[in-house]
């Protein structure tokens, strides 16, 4: 199924030597966690040939499958309509409360404007009537004793 990899002759292989480095005594080694294996079953061994010719062998791990979700019960249309009606009723009540608050605030604002206009206009009239600077126009009438003789005015 897979083509045979082209392997170099033994004389052509480069040999690399690695020297181990001892670990200092302060490092504490913990053993790797043990993966539990179910009794009676032996995990399957899988081998993979890489493109460069190396073969990797290891155990195949089965991933746990999540439990299937339970079917949701259907919700009756009547229950949905009742819930939506309740939400709509609450929205209308909130809107009416907001509307009445707005009308009350507008009424207070208009009454304050009327009071302000009455104070300003009344002050203007008081200044006109009580000003001490004499008349600046209009008709001046001097009242004195006048004599009428034979329907003729003698001033």
Summarize the structure in words.
35% of the residues lie in helices and 10% in strands. It is an alpha+beta fold. The N and C termini lie far apart (146 Å). It has a two-stranded antiparallel sheet. Strands 3-4 form a two-stranded antiparallel ribbon. It has one helix spanning 77-130; strands at 45-49, 55-59, 147-149, 152-154. The protein has one helix and four strands, in the order E-E-H-E-E.
Q: Structural class given helices, strands, pairing?
A: alpha+beta
Helix and strand pattern? EEHEE
- The coarse silhouette is elongated
β-strand amount: 5-15%
- Poorly predicted ranges: none
Give the helix level as a range of percent.
Answer: 25-40%
The overall strand count is: 4
Distance between the termini: 146 Å
Layout of secondary structure:
Blueprint: E1 45-49, E2 55-59, H1 77-130, E3 147-149, E4 152-154
Antiparallel strand pairs: 1-2, 3-4
From the structure above, extract its key features:
two-stranded antiparallel sheet, 155 residues, single chain, elongated, alpha+beta
Summarize the structure.
By secondary structure, the protein is α+β, with helices and mostly antiparallel strands. The chain is about 35% helix and about 10% strand.
């Amino acid at each position: 199924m897979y083509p045979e990899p082209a392997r170099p002759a033994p004389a052509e292989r480069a040999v690399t030597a690695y020297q181990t480095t001892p670990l200092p005594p302060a490092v504490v080694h913990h053993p790797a966690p043990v993966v539990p294996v179910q009794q009676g079953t032996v995990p399957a061994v899988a081998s993979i040939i890489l493109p460069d010719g190396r073969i990797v062998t290891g155990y195949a791990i089965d991933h746990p499958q999540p439990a299937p979700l339970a079917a949701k019960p259907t919700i009756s249309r009547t229950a949905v309509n009742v819930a939506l009606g309740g939400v709509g009723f609450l929205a209308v009540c909130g809107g009416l409360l907001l509307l009445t608050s707005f009308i009350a605030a507008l009424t207070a604002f208009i009454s304050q404007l009327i009071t302000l206009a009455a104070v300003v206009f009344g002050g203007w009239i008081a200044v006109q009537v009580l000003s001490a600077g004499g008349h600046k126009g209009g008709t001046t009438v001097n009242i004195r004793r006048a004599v009428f003789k034979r329907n003729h005015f003698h001033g």
